[in-house]
Each structure stands twice: as C-alpha cells, then as structure tokens.
Amino acid sequence: MLTYAIIAFFVVFFCSSVTYLTGQSMIERPLVVGLVTGLCMGDMTTGILIGAALEAVFMGNVNIGGVISAEPVTATALAVTFAIISNVEQQAAITLAIPIGMLAAFVVMFLKNVFMNIFAPALDKFARENNQKGIVFLHYFSFLVYFFILASITFIGVLAGSGPIEQLVNNIPEALMNGLKAAGGLLPAVGFALLMKLLWNNKLAVFYLLGFILTAYLKLPAVAVAALGFVICLVSAQRDLELNELRSLRQAAASSNHVANTDQAEEDDFFS
C-alpha cells in the first residue's frame, strides 16, 4: 500500500504543479490525471474511464477569487487508486470522488488564504531590500511547500485505505450527501451552460439545434457528431477564405478603377 501511496503522491504533485509551470496546460484536468494515475498503477483503461467520467462531472467547476468549489486532481487520483487497488466499483469510486474533491477544496482554500500568508512578511522584506535572490528562493520554496502539502492529502488517503474514506462518507448525513450528489449531477450541465454562454450567438444556434437532433433523435454517438462538426468547420473555413479573396479582388478592382477615373479627370482638366 505504501508503494501505491507514493505513486499517487507524485501523480498529484506532478499534475497540480506542472500546469502552473507550463502556463495552464490543463494537465490538472481529470481526464489527464486519470490517464497518468492509471498508467502508473498498471491499469490505464480504468484510469481513462474514471477520468473521462469525472471530467464531465467537474467540467462546471468554477473557481471565483479565493473560493474553490472542488479540487479535481486529488479527487481523480484517489478515485482511480481506490478503483484499482481496493476493488471499489467504478461508479462507487466516481460517487466517492465528488465529496472528496469538495473536502480537498477546503484544504486548498486554507492553504491559499491562510497558510501561505506566513511567507508574506519575508517577501515584503526581500522586496524592500531589492533582494532578487531571496524573492526567487521564496517563490520556489513556497511553491514546493504548497504542492507538497496538497499531494500529502492523497498520500495519507491511500495509505489509510479506502475503508476510512468510505466510513467518513457514510457518516455524512443523508440530506447533505443527497445535496452533494445533486450538485455533482448538475455540474456537467453548468459546464455546458457556461460554454454556451461564451460561444452562443444567432449564427451558431442552428448548429446547436443540429447537434441536438443528431444525438436526441438519430442516436448518433458523440464521436460521430464531433466528426461531422469537424467537417462543417472545414467547409465553413474554406467558404470564408473564398469570400475574403473575392472581397480583396473587388477592393483591388475598385481601387484601380478609382485611380483610372482620377487620371482621366486630371487629363481632361489639363486639356480643357
């Protein structure tokens, strides 16, 4: 169990920290975390399946300021690990991941809003002294401390085993658990709604209607609908390129005609 706990620790540390070092590269998304965890645990199929399911659940995960609704990296790593080494069913592991992600979010908020403030006086001191080396050292030191503590949650959870985690979840009041499950079920809808709010306009409404008809009535799988959308994007892009070329030719023709008319007018004025 210690080996699996160490593996889960490094998975969470890697996926949580690298995304900030590489400029928000989405490595912390459940789909990637599930793949990496399953690959390290020796069952990539289970990791991908659970990661894909949790990606839909946490798609609507929105962090506003210092408030974090859920922490998907810890939730995904624990869910995949328990499903692989503790023979927890995938659906049970997915359901277990939702409260785990919400509980881990409280730890993240504590780290960001309370714990990391202990480094603020030292940082102010280095800034007043223009101590660039001290600022850089403190930056990377606090970086390592933060993600080490975050990854330690997964290490302790795996080392303790799935039993205490399940017991903790079972002790949660039924009304609260029902609320958590309902919130988890609504998260995919919230995620899609946020995406639609950003992308929606009258020109794209017809494509949304087309996708709805293909999935709801024709029962096409998501891959087929995505492939059809890719074809439509290529056709639209080619049409836009042709329209831009025609517009450029018309502008060039209009400009040449204007120059020719101007020259003719000047010539007529000269001889008159």
UniProtKB/TrEMBL annotation:
Bilayer-crossing regions: 6-23, 30-52, 64-85, 92-115, 135-161, 182-200, 206-237
Keyword Transmembrane helix included in the entry's annotation: yes
Name assigned to this protein: PTS sugar transporter subunit IIC
Assigned GO CC terms: plasma membrane
Keywords (A to Z) from UniProt: Cell membrane, Membrane, Phosphotransferase system, Sugar transport, Transmembrane, Transmembrane helix, Transport
Membrane topology note: Multi-pass membrane protein
One GO process term, biological-process aspect: phosphoenolpyruvate-dependent sugar phosphotransferase system
Database matches in PROSITE patterns: PTS_EIIC_TYPE_4
Primary location group: membrane
InterPro entries according to UniProt: GatZ_KbaZ_carbometab (IPR050303), PTS_IIC_man (IPR004700)
Source superkingdom: Bacteria
UniProt subcellular location: Cell membrane
